[in-house]
Amino acid sequence: MSKAEETKAFIIEKIAPVFNKKGYAGTSLTDMTEATGLTKGSIYGNFANKDEVAVAAFDFNLKKINAILKGEMAKETSAREKLLVHVRVYENFSKYAFPSGGCPVLNTSTEADDTHPALKQRACDAIMSWKKNLAGIIKEGIANKEFGKTTDPEQIAVTIIAMLEGAIMIAGVTGKAQYRSHVAKSLAKLIKAL
Fold first, then answer.
1. How open is the CA angle 32-100-134, to the nearest 5 degrees?
2. CATH number at residue 108
3. pTM here?
4. Within the chain, where are the H helices?
5. What is the DSSP letter of 102?
6. Alpha-carbon span 37 to 39, nearest angstrom
7. How many domains does the chain have?
8. CB of 109 within 8 A of CB of 127?
9. Rounded to 5 degrees, what angle do the CA atoms 69, 63, 138 make?
10. 31, exposed or middle or buried, with CB in 10 Å at 0-12, 13-18, 19+?
């Protein structure tokens, strides 16, 4: 890595948690300089503007989650267990190296849906990629006769995402972690019944 690439990576690593907790609108230039210990000129010498920093921070946070899921799924051999990894990880995300502030897909989707087209597109792309990966696992399970042949991979994939993200949102808003566990148990039953 060149010195410029190292500086850019440092900035993103330090700022990503701030954006994930405070959102795009809530993150100020002061927040960015305090998180990095750098000046405004140093930050904007590496990024064109706040939008570019926010998109890079989202990508950084998403990469962390994807690495966790990939690592946990690599330990499993069946399609069913690979799907259940998502339930375990999201139900117990505090036990993993999740981004500070929780799920960036949920956080960004909630904030950017009406306010920031670039971040909205990033969140949409993340959801569509997640759906594609889950649907692929479900198709593998159908081919291996783990799941019934009438199982609709896209429907189940979208349902898994909605239940996981909804569980995080409800638990976060209410402050009741048991709601996340309730949804996780329901989702595990759904997956086991496929």
1. 120
2. 1.10.357.10
3. 0.93
4. 3-26, 29-36, 40-44, 50-73, 79-91, 104-112, 117-143, 153-174, 177-192
5. S
6. 7
7. 1
8. yes
9. 40
10. middle
Q: Coil, strand or helix: which one is 21?
A: helix
In tens digits, what is the pLDDT along the chain, a chain of 194 residues? 898 899 999 999 999 999 999 999 999 999 999 999 999 999 999 999 999 999 999 999 999 999 999 999 999 999 999 999 999 999 988 899 889 988 999 999 999 888 899 999 999 999 999 999 999 999 999 999 999 999 999 999 999 999 999 999 999 999 999 999 999 999 999 999 99
Take residue 11 and report the two structure tokens written for it. 């900035």
Which residues constitute the domain of residue 21?
A: 3-192
**CB-based contacts of 189, cutoff 8 Å, min separation 6:** none
Q: Which two tokens stand for residue 26?
A: 């809530």
Do residues 24 and 54 lie in contact, with contact meaning Cβ atoms separated by under 8 Å? Answer: yes
